[in-house]
Amino acid sequence: MGESPSAIGTRAEVEIAAALTRAGKQVYLPLCASDGRVDSIFADESGLHRVQCKTSRLLGDVIAFSTCSNTGGVRKDYQGQADYLGVYSRDLDQVFLLPVDELPSRGCHLRLGPARNAQHKGLRWAGDYLIGRSSPKR
Description:
This protein is mainly β and about 140 residues long. It contains 1 helix and 11 strands. The chain has one domain: Trna Endonuclease, Chain: A, domain 1.
């Protein structure tokens, strides 16, 4: 039997907090808001930043993840409630940090390699958002 959704989410939160810490950020975790819209907060030279943690799926050369919650069939984005999405790729053992205000409202893709149709415009390259480790584990 696979991991429960709660266990998968907890793993993502831990990996994202660890990556931010390794990157020199001070990370703060909520004590009593496990169902809140923010999973962690980090501090750096520009202030405090709210982070919502997400897990991803590896689909060939694309890392896919949701940019909204889906509770009871109701989708809700994180605009105004979180500053960043921290995305954990279990497949690559990597963490990505993306500004919420630059993301689509439902889902997003990060590219690891060029698109098959040679498209370049509008692509989000995973390496631009990677925290820490410099190369994928493949």
